[in-house]
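Q: What changes when guanosine-5'-monophosphate is included in the input?
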Amino acid sequence: VSSAAEKFDFFYLVQQWPGSFCDTRQGCCFPDTGKPAADFGIHGLWPNYAKCGRGRQEELASAVLGEDDVAFFSSVGRRGKCWPEYCDDGNALSPWEIRDLVASLDRDWPTLSCKSGRSFEFWSYEWKKHGTCSNLAQHEYFARALALKARHNLTAILAGAGIVPSDTETYPLSSVRDAIAQGTGFTANLECNRDADGNAQLFQVYQCVDREGKKLIDCPLSMPTKCSRDQVKLPLF
Ligand code: 5GP
Ligand code: 5GP
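A: The predicted holo structure follows.
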């Protein structure tokens, strides 16, 4: 399976707002490199199918096994499989391969989870789950995610529209959506979460990216929205 080209349609570049990760009831921890900047951080670059359906693993399995066994072997929900994942468990992320990117990754892809404080573990997890399905080499995968983030600076784009981090202000979700569309040229999907007091806040931004991981594209139709609030906060970090 590892040598076969994965069939997927586009990537999501997913970025998280650190203030919204940290002020939840669950909380957060800073990585061993110190408190990250008050800037969006990369969560991952995720291969996706434009339509949920049968994935490559199921196709291979059904060829070998027969239809009934496939359901048993795959983790497909009722909507079908919406993305490939864990395409090559033997392909672990190598620190050597990405050594020239580590300073940038520490800045732009820091972990906020309290599990280990080592961002490398976050990068390794994302590589294993999503990167191994990307048809990109390790260095390419991380370099392209970094380049996309740098090219479209979400924090600056929002600030340019008057959407600045604040613990008191709320912003219309439509103004966030419009600012990103104006600033990047493409619509993004927005995800909200709640702070410890239950206030809705902007948590993650999903931008659609071409199969090479090089440029933003219009998102394929029918992506369920991940934020149904009219007003959201962008909390301080
Ligand atoms: P959650 O259920 O918290 O939204 O997502 C859990 C995990 O499932 C994510 O971290 C990600 O690895 C995967 N995931 C969720 N939504 C998507 C998606 O739309 N595309 C892909 N490729 N993975 C997703
Ligand atoms: P996904 O949601 O991509 O499947 O899972 C993300 C995994 O990476 C989770 O197991 C989570 O604990 C870990 N992780 C480490 N650092 C971070 C972080 O800063 N943000 C998020 N969302 N997950 C992180």
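Observations recorded in class: The longest helix spans residues 138-151.
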